[in-house]
Amino acid sequence: MPVLQPLRLEVAMSEATGRIAITGANGFVGRAVNRALLAQGIAATGIVRRGVACEPGVDARSIEGLESIAPEALSGCGAVIHLAARVHVMRDAAAQKKSASQAQAVLDAYRATNVDGALAVAEAARRAGVTRFVLVSSIKALGENDPGRPLTEDDERRPPDAYGVSKAEAEVRLLEFGSRTGLEVVVVRPPLVYGPGVRANFLAMMNAITRGVPLPLGAIDARRSLVSVDNLASAALKCARHPAAAGRVFHVTDGYDPSVGELARKLGDHLGKPARLLPVPAGLLGGVAKLAGKTTQIERLTGSLRVDSSRIRDTLGWRAPQTLDEGLAATAAWFRMARGEKP
């Protein structure tokens, strides 16, 4: 169970103002947060590694690494949105299965960035006089599948891998840090994030649909929550400024959970390339995946992962600015433009 700070006495809907810093400002989510800040006229400070550029209009401040960040990098900021992280990659998952020593090495690498690095930024923020610290975590801090109902913020943490373990540990330790020091820590947990610039499995699905590759997803009815990168940016900004967010954990989704087959069909519609879905039973698909050593990947497609995001709506009054279809349309438009297709 998370260690929560007492809520601030302010219950008014007024929100703090002032400059906001973003670690990992040059990343997929970071750029969306930058755009959201600038669109609302909020001064943005991008914390990036040396030699890395930020969005135009963002005050870039370079650091050598999270572990050595100085309070000066965050001076003048009222809040920090912490995005910089070692992200989940398949080669790490494969390494964990080879030996105990390799599994420990992978976990240590995740902890170094996602736990120790996050705590270093929080300490620098406290010393710089920052009031609010927003950790963008992951639903993997809770698990890979839901228990037959949408996961809530109060469910027990059961992370499935080293990445999830590091995110769960970061949540607990930062909430404890906030309780001890007075820094207002907020945790935001997104599920799968998609949008213009997306990579990994989501991009692979769009490539497959565009090429007309048959996908064995027609009989899969498990539903999975998603959040567009612009919706996540909007929610992170709300958590950085709303008085009632202090010390809380919030899930963020688009508000509609499609099945994987439905998602593929919707993407096909927006890409102008109908998805070719084969009705392969989930049991058969799982058996083939086991023989091919792809069980983990198939479980992500056939298992349900629904996330309850009612708390952020009820507590902060946040509403997703984009619907799922709007987010998918924007993603498909970016993908087609990147391929050189005409609008």
TrEMBL record:
Residues 20-250 form the NAD-dependent epimerase/dehydratase domain. Its EC number is 5.1.3.2. Gene3D superfamilies: NAD(P)-binding Rossmann-like Domain. It is an enzyme of class 5 (isomerase). One of its GO terms (molecular function) is UDP-glucose 4-epimerase activity. The keyword Zinc does not apply. GO terms for cellular component: cytoplasm. SUPFAM superfamilies: NAD(P)-binding Rossmann-fold domains. It holds the Pfam family Epimerase. InterPro entries: Epimerase_deHydtase, NAD(P)-bd_dom_sf, NAD(P)-dependent_oxidoreduct. Keywords: Isomerase. It comes from the Bacteria. The keyword Isomerase applies. This is UDP-glucose 4-epimerase. It comes from Candidatus Paraburkholderia kirkii UZHbot1. The lineage of its organism: Bacteria, Pseudomonadati, Pseudomonadota, Betaproteobacteria, Burkholderiales.
